[in-house]
Task: structure prediction
Amino acid sequence: MAQRGIREYAAKKLLSKYINEYSSRKFQYKDEVALVSPENSIETIAEKNNWIKEKHLVVKPDQLFGKRGKHNLVLLNTTYDEAKKWINERMGKVVEIGKTKGPLTHFLVEPFVPHTKEYYIAIKTEQNGDKIYFSETGGVEIEENWEKVKEYFVPILKTIEDIELANINEKIKEFIKTLHKIFVDLDFTYLEINPFAIVDSKIVPLDLVARLDDTALFWDKDKWGDIEFPIPFGRIFTKEEQFIKGLDEKTGASLKLTLLNPKGDVWLMVAGGGASVVYADTVIDLGYGKELANYGEYSGNPSEEETYLYAKTILDLMTKEKNPKGKILIIGGGIANFTDVAKTFKGIIRAIREYKDKIKENNVKIYVRRGGPNYKQGLTFMKNLGEETGIPIEVYGPELHMTRIVGIALKGER
Amino acid sequence: MKQLLSKETQSIIYGKQLKAVQRMLDFDYISQRKIPSIACIIDPNGSGIETAFFGSKEIIIPVYNTISDAAKHHPDATVMINFASYRSAFETTVQALDISTIELITVIAEGIPERKERIMEVLAKEKGKIIIGPATVGGIAAGKFRIGNAGGSVENLIASKLYRSGSVGLVTKSGGMLNEMFNIVARAADGINEGIAIGGDRYPCSSLIDHLLRYEENGEIKFHVMLGEVGGKEEYKIVEALRDGKIKKPLIAWVTGTCAKIFPTEVQFGHAGARASGKQETADAKNIALKEAGAIVPDSFDGLFEKIKEVYDNLKPQGIPGKIEEFTPPDIPIDYKKAIKEGIVRHHKEFITTISDDRGEEVKYAGIPLSQIIEEGKSIGDVIGLLWLKKKLPEYATKFIELVVEIVADHGPCVSGAHNAIVAARAGKDLVSALASGMLTIGPRFGGAIDGAGHYFKWAKDNELTPKKFVDEMKKKSTPIPGIGHRVKSIRNPDKRVELLKNYAREYFPKTEYLDYALEVEKITTAKKENLILNVDGCTGVLLVDLMKSIGFTNEEIEKRINAGVLNAFFVLGRSIGIIGHIIDQKLLETKLYRTPYEDVFYTLPKEEEL
Result:
């Protein structure tokens, strides 16, 4: 797939597992970090981890969003009982971070480490190598002190050992080297520790953000262990989205559905990953973003049954609530490479037949555009369906470019 | 600057992608290439040859095991199209980069880790080579060279005029949008000159700008079309090149993914690279930057067509896109299989079958899916019923068949079948050879009496011969009655196996008319000589006739089956179990070569004077 965020908890677990080995035993990071979730309460965790009751703690949500301090979501230097209470008060509570709302479900718990100085390090990937940022003035004010950040570049064909890390003390130099080796070897694509502290000559990561390249799973599954790639914060799937997600996971084909505005009157059902984005773009670029109900894609040669279920889900959603203006369904697509267009339309046609009464009651107009193998037959099927059911269906092939039907449907342009 | 892809360019295909091979050759044919665009195939699991069509002519394509071997034999092949999976694409691409004759590599696989991609990219640049991809369908140099499957079906190649060169240079991120863009460019202008999809990953090995700069050097290309995508900073390199005056030809550009802004949470579209980290990577920001730098940017994807048309219509009167020599591309002969499917041709079948069909989801025996047979808990008797008699047999019949198979399964090592098999096994022959050696002794004297008994007793009874008359008739012909007589067993020392069969049939068969008749015959023969009993072959033969009658076969149908060897088949099937057992036994015992001892052979040769 791509770069995927992992929990701070998971990243710290990886560090504690590998830092000793990758630093030739120079560093250690004790495996004292826990993740509280709806399935795993702090009480259960405390049964196996004595440190939770013995040490002072830090608690914060661990759900791939930042600026937790600013949102008053970090509890510092606390006791087990206070931590428990704090988590219980917040578990399941909906919070708003930036533009995104979502429930709190996961909390990281770790020992509180008193420290004086905060350091900053980040490693990110660029086309030709990895960029390392380091600063002795880390923490929340890193952006204000950006001019103090030192930058180092490790070209992709070199290793960190080939790079001169000027003006850094030996201990931190070793730490940076170790961290970059882990970064490379475990296919991290982003790693930011802000801040970390040096306490009793030990390095302690305090706050951390990380992403892995999940395409490396084939090579790294032993190193990563059972790593979780959580869905982005605030992403809650509706029943229908969940259903399509389930279909998608079961097949080699691709079936995607994101509801944007269920009350919207423009619905999309588009063949192809690239084309589906372009259709959604065009609706928005023509000024109808508020009316766009969904983002929808089917591709990779789904079976008739799969396209039927997919179309049925969308038809069901769009005929739930009537709109006096009527509604528009765009069955779009580019020019297929080798997919038999007539065949993929069969499932959609079956669903439209089944929903024909509801479609008419809701005053839905359907616009079809597609090209590729056997497209003429596919379009004829669609035309005939319109005549058979009395549903207004307009049908176009490659003689019209792909997004033209968006303008025709929305503005009545010809 | 020499063009990477010309009408003479030849390629090496990594991976046995025979469909892609044929598609490339079809493109060659309609583009009127003189030589095929494919020099050879690399198959890591084998070598030899493949054949494919160049028009209606079949050509041989050599297959090599390794890249170095392929390159050594085909030093003129400058392109490698790498269809290796995401697991091996990196290693094979790095190998190909080391081969001096290969200048361009296209990597099709999706899902290669970013670190590996970045290494490939840098290695390629160091060696002055170009990698297209990964995660791409490739692209086309119209009328010159097709990379793999780019462009889709032949109908689409023709509709978008990809068989001859136009004057537009196209580069996109998305491979899926390539066909649509080919179509738009063919309608709004005079068609594609070269169109490349760089692939949807975050770190493609060649970037949008790399290809645009290549197009700048290509005199046939008069203007550019670029389709970018949300995520990454690729498009800013174009902005820079526009500012630096490195792109002089008109550039029409659009970045897709403007819809990302209305998604409630961070969204990752289908492509690995299609996610904006930071405002700069959004489609809107990139579209604005491109426009400010001098690219022609429409208000939406929908406006691309108009902008391309405007630029073309503007350049045309200036004679910048020259006149294109149009021609009608030759038709590709339709594939035989496709023609059959479409009902365009017809053809006599060479084979006919009525018992088994393996073409669908699962094999069917006499029309019944195997899974149904298993789910209903059917036995081997049922399967034999379906495949030999094409009938769903009642339980008494299937049990009887199994009884017969069990009874005839073996009769010790001394009978000719087992004996031969043992001798062959001891000579070191494999199981199949030893089995065949044993089975080939089955015939009129060994095992074959089942057929004979079935045949003669049925003939006699159907012709209403009295048992006495039948015995006399056979005597007249001086033919021993098949199925009558045993070496040691007699009326007072009956054969256990015969008793088992008789008892079963008497209890469960609706009728045993042929058995009854045979037993009447036995009364007459045993009166003459005690060991002239109805033996196991005879009993099996007549009971199988009774069975076929009771499940509804007509006399004629039964005779046809007897003549086809159905009765004998029960013995063949059953005995093969025993013979296989003997062979396995001998192998495990590691017995040595058998040689008949001299003392067991009666040597009596003629004397010379007798000759």
